[in-house]
Design a protein that fits this description.
By secondary structure, the chain is mainly beta. The protein contains 1 helix and 30 strands. It folds into 2 domains: 124 residues, no CATH class; 125 residues, YVTN repeat-like/Quinoprotein amine dehydrogenase (Methylamine Dehydrogenase, Chain H, 7 Propeller).
Length: 349
């Protein structure tokens, strides 16, 4: 009931030229069950110009799923603890941030595992990002008590090059502009940092008018920063990276953990796990954005990938039980039902 009410209120809150009444925006094209345990999951990545979807299923490892044949192709060896994959076809390389603080590397074509090196000894890695300007990758740790570390490696070889520590409890994946800057969100400080991509020195910082800056994308076509925030009033925000000026602020669904830009259709999408929705925003130009509506998905479907060839959107989730809080009011993690993990495919209308 609360899920449906929240979703309905979000729809009622749409402003300025929403989708026409009865317009579907996106429809569920398929839902494919995958075998598995009670594992959680995190990032998913679609191979550029290909059909292989790499799914980080934590204790079930890195699953490779073909979105065209809708079948599992492989699970990488020694990949238990997979959290955040990165795919680099130009180097025939893939990297995976692991929950034990290690970084796994593999050949992208053959899926042969090459190495698994320990980077962080105080907890897990969250994700890995490639910077085209320096040909380096940055592996970012998950939440920490006081400071966050980035580990820098050569993208072609996986050779470690350095480590940088930032004074923030949680930093989500930075967005490279390909021209020598990285835009890095400090989640709980409501900040966006502009960094030199070679030295990681801070050039500027901008306070963001929202709670929990989680997702950041740099859009080269319009030279814009696209931001997704959580909290009780989750927002999509567009910024001018030259000045930090806010250009748009639009309500989105709760629990964003993924964002994608469909350049062909002029759409910006956010996947929101808490209220099971896909927010659809029309971008009419560099400074013009409007909410079209919200497509109901499934609970906990929070991470997303867009297939640029077809416009289809892929999300993953599983059935879950949320147990009652303990005597101190602390809720245990959700229990995900074995055998219920599903890959969802939504197609544009």
């Amino acid at each position: 009931m609360h899920l449906r009410l929240g979703f309905a209120l979000l729809l009622l809150g749409a402003t300025a030229l929403p989708a026409a009444a009865g317009e579907a925006l996106y429809r569920l094209e398929s839902a494919t069950l995958l075998p598995g345990t009670d594992t959680d999951w995190d990032y998913i990545k679609l191979e550029p110009h290909g059909s292989r979807l790499f799914i980080a299923r934590r204790k079930d490892g890195l699953t490779v799923f073909d979105v065209e044949s809708k079948r599992v192709l492989a699970t990488l060896e020694n990949s238990a603890g997979a959290n955040g994959p990165l795919l680099l076809p130009q180097f025939d390389r893939g990297y995976v941030a692991m929950t034990d603080g290690s970084l796994l590397s593999f050949e992208l074509k053959s899926l042969k595992v090459l190495d698994r090196i320990k980077l962080a000894d105080d907890g897990g890695l969250n994700g890995v990002v490639f910077d085209p300007a320096t040909q380096r990758i940055h592996a970012v740790v998950g939440s920490r008590p006081a400071e966050s570390a980035w580990f820098t490696l050569d993208a072609a070889t996986g050779k470690p090059l350095g480590k940088k520590v930032f004074p923030f409890r949680k930093m989500d994946d930075p967005a490279p502009d390909g021209k020598g800057e990285l835009y890095a969100p400090a989640r709980y400080d409501n900040l966006l940092l502009k960094l030199d991509s070679r030295t990681l020195a801070e050039q500027q910082r901008w306070p963001i008018d929202c709670v929990q800056v989680v997702a950041v994308e740099y859009q080269a076509r319009h030279d814009r920063l696209l931001i997704g925030c959580r909290g009780d009033s989750p927002r999509f925000i567009a910024l001018d990276p030259a000045t930090g000026r806010q250009l748009a602020s639009i309500p989105i669904g709760k629990g964003i953990d993924g964002m994608a830009v469909d350049e062909k259709r002029g759409l910006i999408l956010t996947s929101n796990g808490s209220d099971a929705s896909l927010t659809v925003i029309r971008q009419d130009g560099p400074d013009s954005y409007r909410l079209l509506g919200n497509v109901q998905t499934r609970p906990q479907a929070r991470t997303m990938q867009l297939d640029e060839r077809t416009g289809r959107v892929y999300l993953v989730t599983a059935d879950a039980t949320f147990s009652a809080p303990d005597a101190e009011g602390k809720a245990p993690p959700p229990y995900f039902h074995p055998g219920s993990f599903v890959v969802l495919s939504y197609e544009p209308q």
